[in-house]
Amino acid sequence: MTEPDCLRDTRASYDAVAADYAALFHDELASKPLDRAMLAAFAELVKAAGGGPVADVGSGPGRVTAHLDGLGLTAFGVDLSPEMVAVARAAHPGLRFEEGSMLALDLDDGSLGGTPQGYLLVRKPG
Fold first, then answer.
1. Which of 19, 56, 62, 76 has the fewest CB within 10 Å, making it most exposed?
2. Please, are residues 43 and 116 in contact by the beta-carbon 8 Å criterion?
3. Cα–Cα–Cα angle for 7, 67, 56, nearest 5°?
4. Dihedral angle at the C-alpha atoms of 78, 81, 82, 85, nearest 10 degrees?
5. 108-124: pLDDT as tens digits
6. Which tens digit of pLDDT belongs to each residue from 9-52?
7. If 0-12 CB within 10 Å is exposed, 13-18 middle and 19+ buried, where does residue 126 land?
């Protein structure tokens, strides 16, 4: 299957700016109390539903993945850009980051406790 131009273009764009993007937004959550509160509420909902791994899809340099890990979730990041994944792995060596597309995630149905983005939630059976 041929990859759509939009994925190649998006990947190339984020690869080109990965280090600068990470530097610019490294402490972005510090100035966003509502975002932190929503992520905390999300973490509580995942824990109340029995936990399970959480996928930060479009994780970029991994700041949200790391925040979710700090909230006690088993979080991992997935990003289209190999450079973003490399930056995330360097910044957060204890966390898992994978290259992948949100259009074709290599995840089984029901395998996640959730994703914080809201556009993707794979529920556990039951």
1. 19
2. no
3. 25
4. -40
5. 677 776 666 543 343 33
6. 999 999 999 999 999 999 999 999 998 999 999 999 889 888 88
7. exposed
Neighbour-count burial of 102, counting CB atoms closer than 10 A to its CB (0-12 exposed, 13-18 middle, 19+ buried) = middle
- Reported as a single tens digit per residue, the pLDDT across 88-113 is 999 999 999 999 888 777 776 777 76
pTM: 0.84
Residue type, position 97, single letter: F
Place of tokens 């059976």: 125
- Buried b / exposed e over 1-25, threshold 16 CB at 10 Å, is eeeeeeeeeebeebeeebeebbeee
Residue 59, number of CB atoms within 10 A of its CB:
29
